[in-house]
Amino acid sequence: MIVILIDAILIVGLGTVLFSGLMSTARAFALFTAAVIITGRIPFNDALDRLTTPAILAVTSLVIIASALARLPGLSRAVFGRAGRGPRLTLARFLGSAALASSVIPNTAVVAALLGPAVRRPDVSPHLLLLPLSYMALAGGMLTPFGTSASLMVTGEAARLGVDLSVFDFALPGATVALVVFAALVLAAPIVLKERKAPEADTSGIFHIEARIDEGSALINQSVAAASLRKLHSFYLAEIIRDKRVIRPVHPAFVLNPGDRLILVGDVSHFDELHGINGLTLDAAPKRQNTEEFFHAVISGQSLLDGKTLREADFRARFNASVMAVRRGEERLSGKLGDIRLRTGDVLILSAGPDFGSRDNVRPNLHILDIESPGQTPMPTRTAWALGLSFVTFLGVALTQVIPFHHAALALAALVVGLNWTSAREVRRNFPFDLVIILWGAVLLSLLITQSGAAAAAAAFIAALTGNLPPYAALAMIFFFAWAMTELFSNASAALTALPVALATASQLGLPPEAFALATAFGASASFFMPFGYQTHLMVMTPGRYRLSDFLGLGGIVFVAYATGTLTVLTFLYL
Fold first, then answer.
1. How many CB atoms lie within 10 A of CB 257?
2. Helices (H) and strands (E) in the chain, counts
3. Burial per residue of 403-413, b for 16 or more beta-carbon CB atoms within 10 angstroms, e otherwise
């Protein structure tokens, strides 16, 4: 009884922490792993063995390989083609390229590589391109068992439990899903993602900006109205911070004191209006009022900035850059810039020092939208051809399964580093430590769910509920269970949470376990509704100027197409 209680506390506690957002996913899984080992629910040696599972080794190798592939020249031209095509043709080529890339490269890396080129595309709005990119990367990842970390983990854990999934098991359902999602996006995205043309609704340049009243300022002892801070054209005074007190809303008669922090919200392309106010000091003010000199940067999914304030991250010293403004979707931020807890997907406007582009820590933490990734130079042509041929050979070996996939991935990763196609320094700064911790914790979570009896109990419930229904009803329940879990956990941990339930359900109903394992993998990657449901959604939300309604509208259409395609093909093939 005590053991059951401990297991329940560990599982429910992890779910509660992840759902509440009290800490990052990696930190939550790290604490969960420590608790599982300390309580003795999984012996230390067994837990350590799970850290080196083939799936985790394969995911890590793919990240290293992706860092080299990102340096291949001509990326933008390859995915977009020549300018002047219609929006739908441009979108179709863009999404087709993203789907093919995501089938063999981690989709986070694909979105990160295409984010900047899509934002800089002159003839098509990022609003039309970025959310479809995130959705297509998810769907394209299902073309192969190694296209997403969830599929890799399901394939590896299922094999350990005696259920072998091959490339061909993913091929037909994956191709079906990719095609129906592609069609849904090309047809629906230009309709659902219409640009908001009204000037008052265009918030693409609206940022949270901080200014201050220094000693000796001409604004001291003036009221807000007298200082003309209520009549600004491109900004409005949202709040004033005095000591630790936040004054909001700000009354026109409020008198300004030295040390007051003014939080303004407005269009950063009109910084000169703020510079024209005598006595108002902008933090990290640029030397010249030319917005083309600013860097727009998106916080990456694995950034050390996620969950930290600028002060806690020591941003200025770490990157030799100052944050002038912050934007998070259409959310209203409050407080000093230095006190805002940053999140994946936030857009920062940076005033950077001369060595900003050469710093090792920029690209792992920030996606720069205005220019190609700083500090990254394209490969020489001969090296690019060598890498391309090596990668094609790797794909051939992986698809034919001549040798185990993780062996092939490790071999190519070693070749990439050994021939200096990506440097050891590049490997160190791109190594997915957080992802490894999450995957390790997810494997232990799956093991705990199985040995606690929770998987068997859930399977018995599903079997009883669907026993008198057609077999596809149970398959659909597993798919939707995995989908529900992915809204709570990450997609890999959702897959490993649902997998033991899926296999136990198949066993109790006497149905093919392969179908239920595949339903788990596909359901765990069906995160389309919420911006915080998947890393890449957060990455594109602010640069693409999306609202929750955009995710619900387009995501609903994509989810219906994705779920229908998956369940139809799996039912036809296995049941």
1. 14
2. 24, 9
3. eebbbbbbebb
The Cα 364–Cα 357 span in angstroms is: 12
Helix (H, G, I), strand (E, B) or coil at 206: strand
206-212/281-282 β-pairing: antiparallel
Query: Residue 284: helix, strand or coil by DSSP?
Result: coil
Give the containing element (helix H, strand E) for 348. Answer: strand 347-352
How many Cα neighbours within 13 Å face the side chain of 109?
27
- How many other CB atoms sit within 10 Å of the CB of residue 5? 9
* 373 close to 363: Cβ distance less than 8 angstroms: yes
* Predicted local distance difference test score (pLDDT) of residue 288: 39
Rounded distance between C-alpha atoms, residue 474 and residue 507, angstroms: 12
In the three-class reduction of DSSP (H, G, I as helix; E, B as strand; rest coil), residue 208 is classed as strand
End-to-end CA distance of the chain: 39
CB atoms within 10 A of CB 500: 25
- The whole-angstrom separation of Cα 207 and Cα 202 is 12
When pLDDT is averaged across residues 72-83 and rounded to a whole number, the result is 63
Contacts of 402 (CB under 8 A, 6+ apart): none
3-state secondary structure of 301: coil
Q: Which contiguous run of DSSP H or E holds residue 408?
A: helix 405-418
Instruction: Write the DSSP string, 211-262.
Output: EE--TT-TTTT-BTTTTTTTS-SSEEEEEEEETTEEE-SPPTTPBP-TT-EE
Given a contact cutoff of 8 angstroms between Cβ atoms, the answer to whether 147 and 492 are in contact is no
Question: Which residues, other chains included, contact 455 with Cβ-Cβ below 8 Å and sequence gap of 6+?
Answer: 449, 500, 501, 503, 504
Taken in order 523, 524, 525, 530, is the CA torsion positive or negative?
positive
CB 64 within 8 A of CB 413: yes
Q: How many CA atoms lie within 13 A of 63 on its CB side?
A: 20
Residues 91 and 132: their CA atoms lie apart, in Å, by 8
On whether the CB atoms of residues 543 and 350 are closer than 8 A, the answer is no
Residues in contact with 400: Cβ distance below 8 Å, sequence separation at least 6, in sequence order: none
145, 519, 157, 172: CA torsion to nearest 10: -30
At residue 562, what is the residue type? Y
Quick: pLDDT tens for 22-53: 777 788 888 989 998 988 888 888 888 888 88
Cβ atoms of 151 and 408 within 8 Å: the answer is: no
User: Please, what's the b/e burial string for 228-247 (b: 16 or more CB within 10 A of its CB; e: otherwise)?
Assistant: ebeeeebbebbbbbeeeeee
User: What angle (nearest 5°) sits at the alpha carbon of residue 435, between those of residues 6 and 119?
Assistant: 135
SS percent in the chain: helix, strand, coil, step 5: 60, 10, 30
Q: For residue range 310-354, list pLDDT tens digits in order.
A: 888 888 788 887 777 788 876 767 666 777 888 888 888 887 777
What secondary structure letter does DSSP report for 321? E
The distance of Cα 130 from the centroid of its chain, to the nearest Å, equals 12
For residue 307, is it left (φ>0), alpha (ψ between -120 and 50) or beta? left
> What's the rounded mean pLDDT across residues 127-137?
91
Supply 7's token pair.
Answer: 């297991």
What are 447's two structure tokens?
Answer: 């093991």
Nearest partner of 146 among 63, 52, 50, 71, judged by Cα:
63
Report which of residues 76 and 550 the model is more confident about: 550
Q: Which helix (H) or strand (E) holds 186?
A: helix 167-192
